[in-house]
Every structure is written in C-alpha cells, then in structure tokens.
Amino acid sequence: KQEVTQIPAALSVPEGENLVLNCSFTDSAIYNLQWFRQDPGKGLTSLLLIQSSQREQTSGRLNASLDKSSGRSTLYIAASQPGDSATYLCAVPQAAGNKLTFGGGTRVLVKP
Amino acid sequence: EAEVAQSPRYKITEKSQAVAFWCDPISGHATLYWYRQILGQGPELLVQFQDESVVDDSQLPKDRFSAERLKGVDSTLKIQPAELGDSAMYLCASSRAGGQPQHFGDGTRLSIL
Predict the structure, then answer these.
(1) CB-based contact (8 Å) between A58 and chain B?
(2) Nearest residue on chain B to A44, alpha-carbon basis
(3) Residues 59-98, chain A: which have Cβ within 8 Å of B?
(4) A30-64: pLDDT as tens digits
C-alpha cells in the first residue's frame, strides 16, 4: 500500500526566503506526482504535475523535482511572499486512472 | 476553465440525520471523485466514477454512505445516518480522464453535533 509523507508538517519563514517542501512515497512505481495548494476552508488548486518520466517541472517561482528511485519529490518556491501562505500537499496515483494518495500536507506561513 | 461546483458550502446537522452533498464537475470531464478530508490530514478517496459507473468505492463505508452519478454528469453523495466521526470536508474533483490532472471544488464542510 502506497504511503505518502510530508515533513515538516508546518513551516514558518520570513518574506523573501526560498521555501523547500519535501514529499516522500514508499512505492516508486508511480504514474505521476502532483503538488497542490490549499487555502483555509477551500478546495485544492493544482500547482504542478510531474510525469514519472520527468525529473522536474517549473511554473513561475515554483519548481518541483522528482526522484522516483529514492521515492522523493521536492517543491521549491523562490522568493516567498505572504500570499504563498497555505497548505501544500503532494499526491500520487499508482497508475493511470487510479485514485490519488495524498500526504498530510505542509502548512506554510510566510511572515511579512 | 470552468470550476467544479459543490453545494452546500457548509452543513451542520445532528447525528442520526441524513445529509446529502452535490457536485457538478467541469463540462466534458468523464471522471469524478469524492474525497473526505479530516482536519489536518490529506484527502482520502471515497468513490471514483467513470461516466456513470463506479470504478473504485473500496474506501466508501457502504453501510451508511451512498453515491450516484446517474447521467454521468453531476453527482450526489449521501450519508444516512450521520455519525459524529463524519465531521470533515467533503471534496469533489473531476478530470478529463483517469490519469489527467484532477480539478477540485471548494468542498462541503460537514459538522455533526
């Protein structure tokens, strides 16, 4: 059974600092990996999706890397802003069409 | 792109009562998912539909939960009778097909008294 872990559970940084969020998974036979953002009381917004054949994916200040062999993904957010404060979740499906298994999330607070 | 619509946004009810949640996916999205998210945890899949057919309901407590997507478009998730442990956020998501990015609605926050 796939297990997804995100450490730390919470993170607080001053504005302008780079953020590094970690995601690990136990079964490396994944189809892709997706990073989401969740604001309090809201649904999930997809940030990046990395296919299993890719090593990284970039969108603006966000960069996500994937190392399947070690069962890890890292989300980097450059030059953090207070608006980046949210919970960030990673999720993996085992195969195309399969359900997503989510990590518990990392709650980020960027202080002005 | 259009959003996934869910209603109601909030629901407060007493235990033993029946509750129902509604989801309207993005037009053209064949796959629809219902997730339950307990506070401080990641979402867990309850049921997945491909068009009108259930493809995964292994984590759905079938003694009290039911879900349907009769015409392969919108969907309803029902709980009867509700229990205190059902308090959570219920999220609906849709995708064009399995394996494509999932798009989430804002969820229904359920509180059982």
Answers:
(1) no
(2) B104
(3) 89, 91, 93, 95-98
(4) 889 999 999 998 899 999 999 999 999 999 999 99
Cβ–Cβ of A44/B48 closer than 8 Å?
no
**Vertex B91, ends B85 and B93: CA angle to 5°?**
150
Q: Is B64 left (phi over 0), alpha (psi -120 to 50) or beta?
A: alpha
How far B27 CA lies from chain A's nearest CA (Å)?
Answer: 18
Cβ atoms A63, A76 nearer than 8 A: yes
Do A102 and B50 lie within an 8 Å CB cutoff? Answer: no
What is the distance in angstroms between the Cα of A72 and the nearest Cα belonging to chain B? 17
Measured distance CA(A92)–CA(A78) in Å, rounded: 24
pLDDT confidence tier of residue A96, bands split at 50, 70 and 90: low
Q: Find the CB nearest A99 among B6, B40, B48.
A: B48
How wide is the angle at C-alpha A26 spanned by C-alphas A32 and B94, nearest 5°? 35
What are the pLDDT digits (tens) for B31-54? 999 999 999 899 999 999 999 999
In this structure, of A66-75, B65-74, B86-95, B96-105, the range with the lowest mean pLDDT score is B96-105
CA atoms within 13 A on the CB side of A82: 2
Q: CB-CB: which of B33, B41, B99 is closest to A31? A: B99
What pLDDT, on a 0 to 100 scale, did the predictor assign at position A95? 73
